[in-house]
Amino acid sequence: MMMGRFALLLLAFASLQLFCVADDDNNDDDVVFYESFEESFEGRWIVSNKDDYKGLWKHSKSKGHEDYGLLVSEKARNYAIVKVVDEPVSLKDGTTVLQFETRLQSGLECGGAYIKFLRPQEAGWKPEEFDNESPYSIMFGPDKCGTTNKVHFIFKHKNPKNGEYVEHHLKYPPSVPSDKLTHVYTATLKRDKEVKIMIDGEEKKKANLLVAEDFDPPLIPAKTIPDPDDRKPEDWDDKEKIPDPNAVKPDDWDEDAPMEIEDEEAVKPEGWLDDEPEEIDDPEATKPEDWDDEEDGVWEPPKMYNPKCAIAPGCGEWKRPMKSNSAYKGKWSPPLIDNPNYKGVWKAREIPNPNYFELDKPDFEPIAAIGIEIWTMQEGILFDNIVIAKNEKVAKSYRETKWKPKFEIEKERQQAEEEASGLDFLESIKRKVFNALYQIADIPFLSNYKPQILDHIKKAEKQPNLTMGVLVSTVAIILTIFLKLIFGGKNQCPRIETKPVPVVAETSDDQGSDGEKVEKAEKNEAAAAARRRRRET
């Protein structure tokens, strides 16, 4: 009897322990911060009052849902908004999960959709003056413009030797999904110095915060650096090749011969209309009634293609075509020979790095606020379900209950819309090919070639008439790189030349300040409107 009671007592105790552990897995204490935006952000989040940030934030429903989020409502604007957390969140111990949803409802050609996890205000910033200079600990999320297509993970860390804060960028980050569905981005920092990036619950990247190959620049500086005071000796010759001093220009070398000459054998085609211009005034055009010659200038009818030229070999003055000149040789230069005085490439001597330090683990500053500070050319970016947690299971629970139901509905709706719009089999295949190419571009061993690959993919997406040719060239580039890596050893990465494609004008994220980009976009839009009005007249 005593043994039986003892056994029952042990069983009850074990059951209680299991219950407590199961409850601990979803402990509310593990949820440090959660923002669902079901209530208006006004009065809870602080919009920056800086002059540069004129973008209008809205509390809005996600398209096709009853779920609310924080909406970027205008294009070509700067946005800044911040939420101070109740208690600073330490990143030094245990696991920390940073997670949020974004939906690019109008797509994303050029702009950011990332979040900054800010340091305490003692670092020198104020919520109402939040801007791009406000100090953060971690910046995480999508960014896309021109050839830039990445999910950033950047952390700022203080160098204990000189006190400077340095940005450390994750190398080879994953690409941003190219659709208009809701996606959830998760960054998990673990006590073993590991960071894991997930998109929609699928692991896309894993890195070690202390490993030099994973971050640029590395968290741990180099032990030695080139001596900044070392100077190359004046007699140091680093030219491997020199012009042959004994070479003489051949007597028959004509430097003045042109590259092209007229084709003397060419004959003017029969029926050529010498007296007809290629363009004529549009006979149906009339001067607008409100046209003022003094203000608008002398009115001229718009030009149109001369219909007579359409049935003739050509119009206007006929000229013989040009052809390559077989006598052309260009400017003569002596051939290069090995330099007998060549000493090799000069390098400064190495000295101990005064800023070198060692760490067992990163010394992160705590998170005291959550900020969204972006510039974008597209409206319709929706932020939702921002989570900071100390337990990966908590973040997974939010993905399963908050994100996944919306995503499944959006996928079904997208598929139905494609079928209703008559997208054929080839269009469906093309979409899958693009998604596959974006995933291929994320493969680490292709990292040095990622900008060129993404540039090809973007051109194919924007110009349907060139899609097949660009896709073939993209696949050819990837295969060439793959074969070179297998059979070419560790040679330097070749430069891949791409021919410029006309018509498409891309916006680069590294040309000009945010304010300059906005001003340029507004000027371009105004100029385009003026041209449209002229055509209509």
Automatic annotation (TrEMBL):
Similarity annotation? Belongs to the calreticulin family.
Organism field: Gossypium darwinii (Darwin's cotton)
- A single GO BP: protein folding
Q: What compartments host this protein?
A: Endoplasmic reticulum membrane
Q: Which parts of the chain span the membrane according to its record? A: 466-487
Whether Signal counts among this entry's keywords is yes
Region listing for Disordered, in residue ranges: 218-305, 501-537
Name of the molecule in the record: Calnexin
Provide the topology term for how it sits in the membrane: Single-pass type I membrane protein
- Tell me the PANTHER family matching this sequence: CALNEXIN 14D-RELATED, CALRETICULIN AND CALNEXIN
Keywords for this protein: Calcium, Chaperone, Disulfide bond, Endoplasmic reticulum, Glycoprotein, Lectin, Membrane, Metal-binding, Repeat, Signal, Transmembrane, Transmembrane helix
Q: List the disulfide bonds.
A: 110-145
